[in-house]
Amino acid sequence: MTACTPAPAPSAQLEVAARNIQSGALARGGDNAVVGSAYHGGSYWSLAPGERLYNWNHTNGEATLIQRSAVSPDGGWAVTLDELSLVLWNTQSGQSAGYWRLPAEALAVALGRHGNVALLGLADGRALVYDLRRGGILRQFAHSDRVNSVAVSDDLAVMVTGSEDGQVKVWDANSGELRQQRQYSEPVQEVGVSADGARALAAAKYDQIEVFSTADNQSLWQLPFNRERVKRGLNITAARFSADGRYLLTGRPDGFVQLWDIDGQSEIYAWQLPERKAWQPSASPVLDVSFTADPDEYRAMSGNGFIYTLSY
Questions:
Q1: Which candidate, 52, 69, 14, places its Cα nearest to that of 305?
Q2: Global confidence as pTM
Q3: What is the pLDDT of residue 282?
Q4: Domains assigned to the chain
Q5: How far, CA to CA in Å, does 145 sit from each of 44, 123, 198, 209, 238?
Q6: What pairs with residue 222 in β-bridges?
Q7: Phi and psi dihedrals of 59, rounded to 5?
Q8: Strand order in 85-90's β-sheet?
Q9: How many CA atoms lie within 13 A of 3 on its CB side?
Q10: DSSP letter at 228?
C-alpha cells in the first residue's frame, strides 16, 4: 500500500451501541468485548456471530456510565469502572464477583490473568495494584501528576505506567522497585507492554511514539508518524502487541488503524474506519484494537458504536 493509496475499509461490522460508545475493551483474541454506552449502560458481547450476553451495571435498575474497562488475558474475567467504583465480573456466568469503592477517579485500568490483580491509574498521581480476591492494595506506584495509562505483563511481574507528568515508568511488581524510567516533553497518553513483559510502548502527545526494551530501557523503534501531525496533537488512542511481541496494532482518534512490524521497522497495513453517518462526518476515535486467532483478521472498536473486523 503506497502513501497515495486510500486505506481500505473494514470487511465486517457489528453495531453494539445505538449512538456511540463511551468506553470499551476487546478481549485479547478479539472474540468478546466490554461496551460502555451512555445510552445503554455496560454490556458484554460475543462478537461472533454478534450477541449481547450480559448487561453489566453497578446499580440494579440503573444504566451505569462505564468510564473504563478491561478483560483479563485468559478472557475469563473483566472489570468495569465508573467514576469512583470498580466491579469484577465473571465472563462465563455474567455474575459480579466483587465491588470496590476507589480512593480517587480512575483514568486507566489493566487486568491481570485470571482476574486476580488490577492495576489502576488514578487522577491523584498514583497507580495502585489491587488484590481482587482478598481485597486491599498490594502496591502503590507514584507519579507527580495524573496517571493516564497502565499496562501489565501476563506474569504480572512487569507493570508500566504513563502520566501527565511526561514520565513512563516500568515497575517490578514483585519487589515494587522502579526498573526503568523515560521522560518525555509532553503528557503520556498511552502505554502498553508485550505479554512477556520484554517490550513496552510509550506514546506522548505532541512528542513521539516509541517501543523500548524494559530490560535495558533502550529504544527499539520510534514509529514514523508524520511529525507535523504529531505536533498538532494527533496521537494513538489504542495499542496492542501481538502474542509474540513482534507486531503492534494501533488506533488513532481519527479512526485510522495501523499494523506495524517492530523488528522490520515498517508499517504493514492500515485501515480507515467509516463514520457512522456519511452525511454528518465527524471523527470517531478508535477505543481498542485486538489481534484474532486468524492471522489475517483484526478487530477495532470505534466510538461511533461499532466493532469492526479488519482483513489483511
A1: 14
A2: 0.94
A3: 59
A4: 12-311 (2.130.10.10)
A5: 32, 7, 26, 20, 21
A6: 210
A7: -130, 130
A8: 68-71, 77-81, 85-90, 96-101
A9: 3
A10: H
Mean pLDDT across the chain:
92
49 preceded by cis ω (within 30°)?
Answer: yes
Phi first, then psi: give them for residue 101, nearest 5 degrees.
Answer: -85, 140
Reported as a pLDDT band with limits 50, 70 and 90, residue 35 is very high
Residue 182 pairs in a beta bridge with 168
Q: How far is CA 308 from CA 21, 48, 305, in A?
A: 13, 12, 10
Per-residue pLDDT, 60? 86
Helices marked H in 156-286? 227-231
Contacts of 141 (CB under 8 A, 6+ apart): 126, 127, 128, 129, 159, 161, 169, 171, 176, 178
Per-residue pLDDT band at 233 (split at 50, 70, 90): low
In this structure, which amino acid lies at residue 196? D
Residue in the structure block whose three cell numbers are 465473571? 90
pLDDT band at 10 (very low <50, low <70, confident <90, very high): confident
Residue 284's pLDDT band (cuts 50, 70, 90): confident
Q: Which residue has the cell 478487530?
A: 299
Question: Higher model confidence: residue 258 or residue 283?
Answer: 258
Burial 15-42 (b: 16+ CB within 10 A, else e): ebbeebbbbbbbbbbbbbbbbbbeebbb
Phi, psi of 253 (to 5 degrees): -70, -15
Distances (CA, A) of 187 to 123, 176, 179: 13, 24, 20
Instruction: Tell me the one-letter amino acid at 241.
Output: F
Backbone angles phi, psi at 16, to 5 degrees: -120, -5
